[in-house]
């Protein structure tokens, strides 16, 4: 029954989920230094991978969340912490998220694990690591869980496990939460970049008949899914996308030690995103619900050197629960 009792207990005002969610991106100053490698894809596109090498036999593959990148504060802080612990890292910038638009009309979505599979295979074929661990945040966490679950027993023996943080594992119900007034500010932030990207795609690909009137009026993810995700990726409807992209149905198929950390006060998540039952019925899938933490926050106090609970938790799970080949 791999369900963890959490030791995360922040000071005030970090026990407020909204405060904890916004503090990291607004006030933390984490930056990381990377070596960028651009790789070509099977469908004539590219991925930008940002490496941080220390000469380890273990590589941590990090995947960011919606509209994030390797520059996101949670990515940079994780890279810097893992680097100090002697682990190599690579940040996978999803299509169109590396600072340069990708070449195709299609970019990324919450369930596009074929892209994760391609990157993992590239790393396996071009680098001589003994261990790969996948760490994903929010949307990237959904990709992590779905990928490891889809692969099941067929996953490469070099991939030793995964960690996912603040994940809407049930996309449909999570979108209902995101549509509520409590998340209006966050939605406006997401939509600012997402709408601009869709306008750019419509300009580059005239055959993509974007209804700009509906785009400007869009206030829900479902609206953007009708306009872009469904027609571009070939889903039948937003509901079809939610069902096929969600990682929750794949959790019981996970066959490598994998941890999900979700905060109870995460305003992005529905009650369906706390999979106690799945963890209790799995030997490999671990779940930890923290009382506080917000969405990819997990800040402890105003002292920067004390604000590393999440990074330490990721490190601890790797060391205590994932069997790494160190020979």
Features:
short-chain carboxylesterase activity, 9-stranded mixed beta sheet, ABHD4, 2 domains, hydrolase, AB_hydrolase_4_sf, Rossmann fold, monoacylglycerol lipase activity, alpha/beta, 327 residues
What does this structure look like?
Keywords: Hydrolase. The protein is an alpha/beta fold and 327 residues long. The chain folds into 2 domains: 17-170 and 251-321, Rossmann fold (3-Layer(aba) Sandwich), CATH 3.40.50; 172-245, no CATH class. 38% of the residues lie in helices and 17% in strands. The protein has helices at 17-27, 73-84, 113-126, 139-151, 171-178, 184-204, 212-217, 221-233, 238-245, 276-280, 309-321, and strands spanning 3-5, 35-40, 46-52, 58-63, 88-93, 131-137, 159-165, 258-263, 285-290. The protein has a 9-stranded mixed beta sheet with strand order 1-9-8-7-6-4-5-3-2. Strand 2 (35-40) and strand 3 form a beta hairpin. Helix 3 (113-126) packs across helix 4. The mean pLDDT is 96.
In short:
The chain has 327 residues and is of the alpha/beta class. Helices cover 38% and strands 17% of the residues. A 9-stranded mixed sheet has the order 1-9-8-7-6-4-5-3-2.
Secondary structure: elements and pairs:
Blueprint: E1 3-5, H1 17-27, E2 35-40, E3 46-52, E4 58-63, H2 73-84, E5 88-93, H3 113-126, E6 131-137, H4 139-151, E7 159-165, H5 171-178, H6 184-204, H7 212-217, H8 221-233, H9 238-245, E8 258-263, H10 276-280, E9 285-290, H11 309-321
Parallel strand pairs: 1-9, 4-5, 4-6, 6-7, 7-8, 8-9
Antiparallel strand pairs: 2-3, 3-5
Helix pairs in contact: 2-11, 3-4
């Amino acid at each position: 029954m791999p369900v963890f009792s959490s030791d995360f207990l922040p000071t005030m005002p970090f026990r407020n989920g909204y405060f904890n969610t916004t503090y990291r991106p607004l006030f933390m100053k984490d930056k990381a230094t990377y070596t960028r490698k651009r790789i070509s894809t099977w469908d004539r596109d590219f991925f930008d991978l940002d490496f941080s090498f220390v000469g380890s036999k273990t590589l941590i593959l990090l995947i960011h969340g919606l509209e994030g990148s390797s520059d996101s504060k949670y990515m940079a802080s994780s890279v810097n912490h893992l680097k100090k612990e002697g682990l190599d890292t690579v940040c996978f910038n999803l299509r169109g998220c590396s600072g340069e638009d990708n070449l195709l009309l299609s970019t990324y979505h919450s369930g596009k694990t074929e892209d994760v599979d391609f990157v993992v295979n590239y790393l396996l074929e071009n680098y001589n690591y003994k261990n790969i661990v996948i760490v994903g945040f929010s949307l990237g966490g959904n990709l992590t869980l779905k990928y490891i679950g889809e692969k099941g027993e067929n996953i490469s023996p070099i991939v030793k496990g995964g960690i996912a943080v603040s994940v809407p594992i049930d996309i449909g119900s999570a979108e209902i939460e995101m549509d509520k007034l409590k998340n209006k500010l966050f939605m406006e932030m997401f939509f600012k970049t997402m709408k601009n990207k869709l306008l750019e795609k419509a300009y580059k690909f005239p055959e993509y008949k974007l209804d700009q009137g509906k785009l400007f009026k869009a206030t829900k993810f479902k609206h953007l899914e009708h306009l872009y995700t469904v027609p571009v990726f070939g889903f039948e409807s937003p509901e079809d996308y939610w069902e096929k992209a969600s990682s929750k149905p794949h959790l019981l198929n996970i066959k490598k030690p994998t941890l999900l950390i979700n905060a109870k006060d995460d305003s992005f998540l529905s009650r369906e995103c706390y999979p106690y039952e799945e963890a209790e019925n799995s030997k490999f899938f671990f779940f930890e619900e923290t009382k506080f933490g917000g969405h990819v926050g997990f800040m402890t106090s105003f002292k920067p050197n004390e604000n590393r609970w999440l990074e330490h938790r990721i490190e601890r799970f790797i060391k205590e629960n994932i069997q790494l080949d160190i020979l």
